[in-house]
């Protein structure tokens, strides 16, 4: 895919001139751009463009990496440092009943409505792609290439939505479909990342101090036929 590019001035004015050319241009009352003359090297031309302060900006450039996109080993290290503990589904149910723990279901809203534990709160960590910037169009095309026509993106309002429902002292068990794990195995020495572990990472980054993680995910919860609410 060819990225669309645009040339933008280095400053906010209508054009920008390097101080080296300022006096000559102002005295002549004009500024002109010429094609590359014979014998003028591409390197010198590139240096001249840089001195004129012209920047090439890609319209389809990926946005800066968000905390959720941090490397898994860095996320895992912080989760272990903050003593985020994984619990199985039966212990999660007991904690919910006896110790006022809240299950935070971070799956998409549609999945939550199909089935979820009683009393669970839904804040999706990923949502359908909403915007139509060049980067978003490129992502939609990439999903479509693999036959996925409902591509998702990180929910930028995830923490804000959680904060509107749960204060920083709340006792939270974060759950997704698969669960993932922080436990090392022979094939996965750093465990396996999941949506719930990413969500737990974001929560501890933002000051939540009582964060647990549902090992085995809601798939295991439903498989063991634990209490479930069906909305649709």
From TrEMBL:
CDD domains: RHOD. One of its GO terms (cellular component) is chloroplast. Gene3D superfamilies: Rhodanese-like domain. SMART domains: RHOD. InterPro entries: Rhodanese-like_dom, Rhodanese-like_dom_sf, Str14. This is Rhodanese domain-containing protein. Residues 97-230 form the Rhodanese domain.
